[in-house]
Amino acid sequence: MTGHPRPDGRFGVRDHVLVLPSVVCSTNAAERIARESGAVAITHQHGCLHVGDDLRHTERALIGTATNPNVGAVVVVSLGCETIQGRRLARRIEDRGQRVAFVGIQAEGGTERAVAAGVAAVGELRAVLDAIPPEPLPAAAVTVGIDRPRDPLAPALTAALAGRGWAVVDAPGDLSAAESHVALAAAGAQVIVSLRGPGEAPLGFAVCPVIAVARDPALYAALRDDFDLPDEDAERTVADVVARVDATLAGEPTASERRGARDFVLRRLAMTM
Question: Which domains are assigned to the chain?
Fold first, then answer.
């Protein structure tokens, strides 16, 4: 089993170039850049009209996602007049040791020129990453996130994952599953185990493979292609999750990766005008 070494000593189990819009107004350009270059992009509704704690909360989430070990490089795409300034965001990501390129839509002269510049930037960063050979992945370098630590299955699952020598991080208990994935990515989780309760459909995430475990048999029957595992008896489910984490670390795509789900959900702390 191998991973992608990062300058800070961590390992990615995926090797993404992330196209990160600093504001909702640049998400269309970011998606086009990713689609035309083979990178991954996130879509969000943030970056403008933030103040105080709300601004810092959003900026921390974007930086945490951009510096997850599964991300080998980032292209920040800015409009140019947003509250969360793209150049400042790019500098803060770079200060965390990440490879970064910056594209400004207004600075480039419009969307078409910005998309072309972004595609070129992704190509340059992709060439850098492709020149770095994978290395053996130590068990101690693996971090698995659990998005619902209060679930009755979570204690046994945590013990089984830790028994493999992997670190386990839990999401804060007051967040929705989608929001918790942002927090787990910032905490360095390379793989997320998502325990989906009654009526809860499976989710993906921007930069981390998500292993979706159906705790609702009826919903699993309706969406079995979109889940990774059914919930059977607890002992078997825990063993199946550990085996699926193993396969994910070895490069096997999760159901959310196969269908291209790149969910990114972040709560605003305050509404501003």
Answer: 2-130 (3.40.50), 139-258 (3.40.50.2300)
